[in-house]
Amino acid sequence: MGLRTPLYDWHVAHGARMVDFGGWDMPVQYTTIIDEHTAVRTGAGLFDVSHMGRLSFAGPDSFALIQHVFTNDAATMKDGQVRYGLICNESGGVRDDVLVYRWPYGYAMVVNAGNREKIISWLAEHKGTRNVEVSDRTTETCMAAVQGPKAVEMCHDLTAVDPAQLAYYHAAPSTYQGKPCVISRTGYTGEDGVEIIVAAAQGAGLFDELAARGAKPCGLGARDTLRLEAAMPLYGHELTEYIDPLQAGLGWAVKLNKGDFIGRDALLRLQQDKTEPVRVGLMLDGKRVAREGATIKVASVLTGINGCVTSGTFSPTLQKPIAMAYVDLPYAAVGTALPVDVRGKYEAARVVGLPFYRRPKT
Amino acid sequence: MDPQKLRYAKTHEWASREGDVCTVGLTQFAVDQLTDVIYIELPDVREPTNAGDTFGEIESVKSVNDLYAPVSGEVQAVNDSLDADPSLVSKDPYGQGWLVKIKLDEGATLDHLLTFEQYKKQIASEEH
After folding, report:
1. Any CB–CB contact under 8 A between A294 and chain B?
2. Is residue A313 within 8 angstroms of chain B, CB to CB?
3. pLDDT (tens digit, 9 = 90+) per residue, A233-247?
4. What are the structural domains of chain A?
5. pLDDT tens digits for B40-62?
6. A315 contacts chain B (CB < 8 A)
7. CB contact under 8 A, A314 and B41
8. What is the DSSP string of A136-203?
């Protein structure tokens, strides 16, 4: 049995099928993936993301520690701002992709479920003499994500701070039913959305309320198809200790000029390296899905493979199989035709620009 | 088709014999596990099948799974309507969602397949 979020019973009571994810028992779907996916693209979906690690940083050197491990620049963040970035190892490989929150009184970080222990150890290891205390708030809190074009409106009057007052990738400390909470305009679906962190004991009540407001409970199945359409990387797939953020196309979240940080020297070298495969989007002509591990081999090349799929699915929005893959640089240009070995049979695919799906501007 | 009168492979295909032709489909339990079926690849007519060997694949949003022939013989017909509407397999697995019809090899029987009661026991154990 894996770890359980405070919503475990809620999921089971609402008909969820539970699976292991990053050591946690999580809902993969309540109805069907396509139904749940569509609800997020057209209305609002409700996700339990309590498995994500929630760390808080206190002490005068919080900023210095974050700046030391984070590839993005925490120095230019304003109070209430949320910023995506990577935590790299010395070789420039990705230890995790995280969100950093800046508060007037400190910082918080949301890390991947499966990397929580690893990142806590990493922070302890690199803390040095800095005066900072990192505390793990994961199990004492619950985190809900309401995602979709109707999410912000659906969360009106839910917490003391209305999410409509928040800019995208901003957060605010607030209250839910008189108790402290955090509300942010963030998500992992490619839609506008709201994430709410409340005390563990308030989780089921919050989910009841959000479901009653019309947010459709969604599982990890839809979360995966949604993030894939939005071309958001998933740790363990597009990002690993052996993949650096530059080849992953996340150079925008790496600020090499901000001053020193772990992995910077390696990343400066990797920036010049044209031999590393890079992340691309693939769209397949047929109906068979190229999934993780499918290899790409260009017909004219006699030896070796030219790329590998890291995530693939059927896109409910585009009604086509899509995939993210790492391919050698000469094959990475948009429009390049690439044969993908799908379970022993080659399928025609071509490189397309990422993301596969971009939400309509409002 | 009446599920009680069908025979079953451990791999969740059902088989129904009429004369020397056997209709094959997927069980309700299997399609309930799959959900979001997007594509079914079936063999060509006249391809041989061997009991226990794969004859096609079923792709859902979440995963792809092999289809196993419950009997040995030769494919006599495939359900072409699944190409246009693969959801038929989920909506009506014992009717319009049938997969293939296999002309049994001489002497081939369905005796090695599970009865309805035996299959029911198997899925009960899989659910736990």
Report:
1. no
2. yes
3. 999 999 999 999 999
4. 3-52+138-229 (3.30.1360.120), 54-136 (3.30.70.1400), 277-352 (2.40.30.110)
5. 999 999 999 999 999 999 999 99
6. no
7. no
8. E-TTTEEEEEEESTTHHHHTTTTSSS-GGGSPTTBEEEEEETTEEEEEES--SSSS-EEEEEEEGGGH
